Amino acid sequence: MHIKLLIAIFFIFSCSGEIIEENNPIDQPSSSSLEPESSSSVLPSSSSNALPSSSSSSSLPSSSSGVLPSSSSSSLPSSSSSSNLPSSSSSNVSSSSEGPFNPLTGKAAIDADIEANWRRLGYASKPVKMIALSFDDGPCNQTQSLLAALARKEVKTTFFLIGQNITNNLAAAQAMHSAGHELANHSDGYSANPSQKNVQDCSDKIKNITGSNPTLFRAPSVDYGGGAVDNVCRALNLAMIDVSCWSNDYNGINSAQIRNNVKACAGDGKIVNLHEFNTATGNNAAGVEELIDDLRAAGYWILPVGQMAVYKGKTLVGGQKYSSF
Known about the structure:
Elements: H1 2-23, H2 27-41, H3 43-54, H4 61-66, H5 68-72, H6 76-82, H7 107-117, E1 129-138, H8 143-153, E2 158-161, H9 163-168, H10 170-178, E3 182-185, H11 196-210, E4 216-217, H12 228-235, E5 239-241, E6 245-246, H13 255-265, E7 270-275, H14 285-297, E8 300-303, H15 305-311, E9 321-322
Parallel strand pairs: 1-2, 1-7, 1-8, 2-3, 4-5, 5-9, 6-7
Helix pairs in contact: 8-14, 13-14
């Protein structure tokens, strides 16, 4: 009897233990096994989705190339480059474009510039005559006022620079280039019959500003001597630019006389000789602007020397002299 009772109690306790285990879920093992799984599958995915868009978009190539262009490339051209710029400025080359001088500008681009701007610039009819303005002996401490005058009239010119003056007025020479004017060689000093080193020194100073060697040379006082300068220019691949329209502004005359001299000798394809204010006492900024108005009234489109040569179909050769195109 006692044995049967003990057996019955044993079975009761063993069954109740199984029931307790079945009714009590195993939380600890399951939670400890889920935590590593959640940390590996959730955190990386959330951090990888968030980091490229916030902190690493500028440093990670995949996000910067895959995300930024899609958001910016579709909006920037329409807002900043195509919709806000006037149609005339998109084709401007010589008169109203900004940026460094481009010696490779072709005739078609210049024609497009003329077509886009001749009415706006006050011409009575579309100009078909070309003329080049050139300024010798700079830069100087008054160059900025000349550049401001040319900018107001939207004209690009050729500056024949003295190397020593570049050294003494470097910022002015850099401003010429930045404004889109052509920088050319006028020797390193004012001496006649300059040596090859003298000419090379000036070219080097111009190259330090523009990044390329100049292609045009004008001798000091436009004096090419008996052939020695020809050999120097041939060796340095510099075309010798003479003059076909003299302003005589170095003779101490006033701006009205300068304008009259240029109007009297102006012609299609001609190169006008002017000087910066350190040499031409009567050549002030107001006189330059009035001179430009005179030439436009006479139907001339004004170009730098190099661009006028291109427009006229002339291939410039080192060591050869050109006074007009």
